[in-house]
Amino acid sequence: MSAVLEEFARIPEGWTRKHLLDLESLTADEINILLDTAARLKKATRGCRGKVPLLQGRTSANIFFENSTRTRNSFSLAARRLGGDTIEFTSSGSSVAKGETFIDTAKNIEAMQIDSIVVRHSTPGAPHLLAQKVGCAVLNAGDGAHEHPTQGLLDILTIREHRGNLQGITVALVGDITYSRTARSNIWGLKKLGANVIVCGPSTLVSRQWEEFGVEVAYSLDEILPRCDVLNLLRIQFERQATRPFPSVHEYALLYAMNRDRMARAKSDILIMAPGPINRGVEITPDVADGPQSVILDQVTNGLAVRMAALWLTINANDR
Ligand code: NCD
Q1: In what order do the strands lie in the sheet with 216-218?
Q2: What are 149-197's pLDDT values in tens digits?
Q3: Where in the chain is the domain with CATH 3.40.50.1370?
Q4: Residue 219 neighbours by CB distance under 10 Å
């Protein structure tokens, strides 16, 4: 244990950010620090039934105004694995129902002397606003359709583990690009690290505008499939859409679901990813989701590592 404490005695020189709000504003070096730290923490905590007390005496508050399974639980577990405490806030059952504003809620939680706020909100930019109002670290756990930086990082860490390097590999994000914060964070992160990115889906959900950022836009999965090293299959975010973007889910699945037939036409070592929750039979069939090329559960494991790194780096940067 003392060797681990020595290894993590201070945060890396190149890290100065007090918040993790998006991947758009990070440099490639900063993204690499996050990924390297996550990989080191994954190793340091592997098989370790106890805690690695890098955040002992620290408290992280999860304030979630939207549903979550993986993100919320892994942020919580990340803080606790590093010896910290957590506060769990969900808008349902809270004083938000009594008219309290988002900022007032967060400032009241901050007044309990916490070190970080992990926030998920349906309004894009909510974490950025909060970072201007509070003195502790703010981590974005998803703001509307804007960004989900730790999801982008855990996706990239998973690819890096399997491929060693991002440079020159081709990653296709398939599905609902317009409403997906996972897509945006992946695009910024992957491009900065030198990957080729394709966004693919129905024209009602994939904008040509992404070409301006050096991203290839495609409307046929079958056409791009043979070139892809990684597919990240995104859920259709029906809850964010005012109108249905295609005639039927069945038609969507015919054109864009990853299934056995398409697997036979893909590279044999293709990585199949999804941020979850997956909708079996819509963007992915069960045999592919549970098949040998699927790394969907590795992504969840890496989410814990990335969130340990993000909490440790930002909380310590606030101490400087
Ligand atoms: C994603 C999210 O909430 O943005 N899920 C997640 O965090 N694991 C993607 C989604 O909901 O489809």
Answers
A1: 216-218, 196-200, 170-174, 230-233, 271-273
A2: 999 999 999 999 999 999 999 999 999 999 999 999 999 999 999 999 9
A3: 2-147+301-317, 149-299
A4: 14
Ligand 1 atom with the smallest distance to the CA of 142 is 4
Distance CA 260, CA 273 (A): 15
Q: What tens digit of pLDDT does each residue of 2-21 get? A: 788 899 999 999 999 999 99
Distance 276 CA to ligand 1 centre (A): 6
Instruction: Kindly report the pTM of this predicted structure.
Output: 0.96
State the fold for domain 2-147+301-317.
Answer: Rossmann fold (3.40.50)
Ligand 1, pocket residues at CB < 6 Å: 70-71, 142, 148, 151, 181-182, 235, 275-276
In angstroms, the Cα distances linking 292 to 46, 125, 260 are 23, 38, 12
